[in-house]
Amino acid sequence: MRHIYRCPLRWADMDAYGHVNNVVFLRYLEEARIDFLFRPDKDFQQGSVVARHEIDYKRQLVHRHAPVDIELWVTEIRAASFTLAYEVKDGDQIYVRASTVIVPFDFEAQRPRRITAEEREFLAEFRDEEEAVAA
């Protein structure tokens, strides 16, 4: 299963070349990730941090009034980290493919922690085995 986030484009997201700036895509991915992880019914209240981002820019995205879709899914779940994959797209038109490694984190102790059973169960719902093998 994949999580879909509808991301609005802002006029300020464009750079001097008239397309969405590459750095802004990190903000889009963050918005999708927060929408996915911090939901009323499921969330990572104990905390997490980003350990790594990887982004492949496939096509320019220019400002328009319609939002862009960000599809998000889980490709890997380990004892103390998990990987999310994303596609920023319109239908079959892909602008960005990306992934983020996230580490659950205990902010009080200032150290990584293991994924809880509840978190693992939630993440497993969005695990895409075919995508994990292809990655």
Automatic annotation (TrEMBL):
<dbReference type="GO" id="GO:0047617">
    <property type="term" value="F:fatty acyl-CoA hydrolase activity"/>
</dbReference>
<dbReference type="Pfam" id="PF13279">
    <property type="entry name" value="4HBT_2"/>
</dbReference>
<protein>
    <submittedName>
        <fullName>Thioesterase</fullName>
    </submittedName>
</protein>
<dbReference type="InterPro" id="IPR029069">
    <property type="entry name" value="HotDog_dom_sf"/>
</dbReference>
<dbReference type="InterPro" id="IPR050563">
    <property type="entry name" value="4-hydroxybenzoyl-CoA_TE"/>
</dbReference>
